[in-house]
Amino acid sequence: MNTTPIKTAHVVVGVTGSIAAHKAIDLVSLLTHWNSENVRCEVRVVMTADAQKFVTEVPFRTLSRNAVVRDLYESDEQWSPRHIALADWADLLVIAPATANTIAKLACGIADNALTCLALALHQETGMLIAPAMNGRMWQHPATEENVSILKNRGVEFIGPDEGLQACGYSGKGRMSPVDQIADRVRQMLSERGI
Ligand SMILES: Cc1cc2nc3c(=O)[nH]c(=O)nc-3n(C[C@H](O)[C@H](O)[C@H](O)COP(=O)(O)O)c2cc1C
């Protein structure tokens, strides 16, 4: 009989305004159904305003069984701002899909929505994984390359993007990595943190 206590991993999934936003629904489903012998995963979702143009909060709320954070000024019963409470709660923040815009904001330390505020307020030991999704020219633009390099130097991890046919009609590097690979990397990062 396994007597090791079950740990609960706290994962925040950030969703931004990309056509790949619908894939984040499957990511949340995969993470919430992850039940290893000793670890289960609780997921909270934070959406940018632009993400909500691509997909509603309903599937995220239902699958994560938690309210979705969509606005800095939404209030609940807690006295502390939700983005700070979530930053305290998180073991890992995974942004999937991550737009060029959000990557640029993170590189500059801009905090103008719930997701970017949360990212800035994370504890130093909390992991951050970014799964970019964008048009190939946006990905290869020197501004994006510089922003990615700034974030990597700060310890932020990236997965993808992959080559292939993109929703914008072009082929190139910019497709978000498959969600099962992102979920595997999340699990690996959590296990590297002893969770
Ligand atoms: C149909 C459509 C698809 C888009 N897809 C992407 C995308 O995949 N990646 C990206 O970086 N921007 C994409 N954009 C542009 C972003 O939505 C835009 O930069 C937005 O400001 C991002 O906001 P956010 O980072 O706060 O979510 C798309 C815009 C439209 C209208």
Short description:
The protein has 195 residues and is α/β, with parallel strands linked by helices.
Task: Give a topology summary.
Elements: E1 7-15, H1 23-32, E2 39-47, H2 51-54, H3 58-64, H4 82-89, E3 92-98, H5 100-108, H6 114-121, E4 127-132, H7 136-140, H8 142-153, E5 157-158, E6 162-165, E7 171-175, H9 179-192
Parallel strand pairs: 1-2, 1-3, 3-4, 4-5
Antiparallel strand pairs: 6-7
Helix pairs in contact: 1-3, 1-9, 4-6, 5-8
The structure holds flavin mononucleotide.
Properties at a glance:
five-stranded parallel β-sheet; binds flavin mononucleotide; alpha/beta; 195 residues; 9 helices; 7 strands
Structural commentary:
The protein is an alpha/beta fold and 195 residues long. It has one domain: Flavin prenyltransferase-like (Rossmann fold, 3-Layer(aba) Sandwich). It contains nine helices and seven strands, in the order E-H-E-H-H-H-E-H-H-E-H-H-E-E-E-H. The protein has helices at residues 23-32, 51-54, 58-64, 82-89, 100-108, 114-121, 136-140, 142-153, 179-192, and strands at residues 7-15, 39-47, 92-98, 127-132, 157-158, 162-165, 171-175. The strands form two sheets. The protein has a five-stranded parallel beta sheet, with helices on both faces. Helix 1 (23-32) crosses helix 9 (179-192) and helix 5 (100-108) crosses helix 8. The longest helix is centred in the C-terminal third of the chain and has 14 residues, at 179-192. The protein starts with 6 loop residues before the first strand and ends with a helix.
